[in-house]
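User: I've been trying to design a sequence by hand for this structure and keep getting stuck. Would you show me what you'd pick, starting by listing the structure so we're on the same page?

Assistant: Good idea, let's start from the same input. This is the structure you sent:
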């Protein structure tokens, strides 16, 4: 092996973790952990035999942007820009299987081992960074987590925490301070529509075509289509606010915008007219002067990721 061998991979975190498992082609049973790690664990926790390395993530669920580098010898230590750096030893042979409790997997070859088990030093760097201002709907903070893992042949040694500054907290914004409530949207797959209703209970909406925005005659409910996503998995969230907010969001598109009227302390969201999947968002007042302004954002229609919805609601002024 001459020079570093570098691999860049988006590894999905699950339950705040992913695993590095040392394997060889044809292994009948890689050294999977019996269950997800819980409690107070470090950035890198290696099993007693050295074949399983647990990596803790700040991100509970979602992609970790990982760079994996194999070196001939220990690279110079660089801690600038990283909030945590940890070293430990693992016993490797032909491959590293990257996996998580949800069984997402990716295999990376280990260079220059010729199938023999040997000890490698493993240095894990981690950092999180918040996406730029104005890129997301009001009240949304998305953090990108980056890991760099450097490996080189070395005798077995003790685990060492080199730095542990912890992730940087995201500062509160005006939108955060005006949040009145939130919920997740439980999509039924495949999804065809979302119905929004103000009141004390969810409402079905069975009038008019389902492929366009439809408003009820009393102004208390509306239905939008959720078609056009092919076979993508859909996720959704809704947040209510105490006052009007900016609508700019560079990474999202405004799918629909409308106003609902009527008394109530709750907005209900129902996918596909199926009341079993309905969820609710608490509203900050009973009857706003000019109704409730609702914006439905989407992203993911044209890329390889999942389909996402984000709904904001606040009183019209």
């Amino acid at each position: 092996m001459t020079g570093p061998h570098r691999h860049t991979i988006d590894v999905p975190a699950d339950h705040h973790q992913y695993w590095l498992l040392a394997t060889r082609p044809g292994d009948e049973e890689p050294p999977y952990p019996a269950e997800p790690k819980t409690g107070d664990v470090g950035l890198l926790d290696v099993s007693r035999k050295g074949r399983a390395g647990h990596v803790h993530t700040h991100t509970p669920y979602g992609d970790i942007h990982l760079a994996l580098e194999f070196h001939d010898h220990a690279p110079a230590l660089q801690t600038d820009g990283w909030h945590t750096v940890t070293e430990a030893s693992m016993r490797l042979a032909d491959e590293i299987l990257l996996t998580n409790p949800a069984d997402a997997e990716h295999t990376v070859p280990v260079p220059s081992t010729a199938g023999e088990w040997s000890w490698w030093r493993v240095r894990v760097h981690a950092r999180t960074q918040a996406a730029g201002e104005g890129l997301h709907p009001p009240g949304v903070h998305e953090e990108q987590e980056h890991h760099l893992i450097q490996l080189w042949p070395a005798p077995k040694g003790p685990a060492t925490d080199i730095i542990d500054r912890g992730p940087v907290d995201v500062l509160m914004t005006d939108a955060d301070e005006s949040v009145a409530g939130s919920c997740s949207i439980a999509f039924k797959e495949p999804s065809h529509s979302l119905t929004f209703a103000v009141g004390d209970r969810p409402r079905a909406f069975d009038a008019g075509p389902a492929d366009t925005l439809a408003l009820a005659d009393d102004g208390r409910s509306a239905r939008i289509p959720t078609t056009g996503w092919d076979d993508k998995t859909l996720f959704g969230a809704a947040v209510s606010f105490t006052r009007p907010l900016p609508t700019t969001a560079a990474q999202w598109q405004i799918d629909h915008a409308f106003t609902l009227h009527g008394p109530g302390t709750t907005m209900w969201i129902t996918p596909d007219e199926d009341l079993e999947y309905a969820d609710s968002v608490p509203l900050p007042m009973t009857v706003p002067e000019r109704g409730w302004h609702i914006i439905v954002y989407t992203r993911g229609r044209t890329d390889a990721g999942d389909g996402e919805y984000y709904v904001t609601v606040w009183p019209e002024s």
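That's my pick for every position. To get oriented when you compare it with your attempt: The CA atoms of residues 139 and 175 lie 5 Å apart. The longest strand covers residues 118-130.
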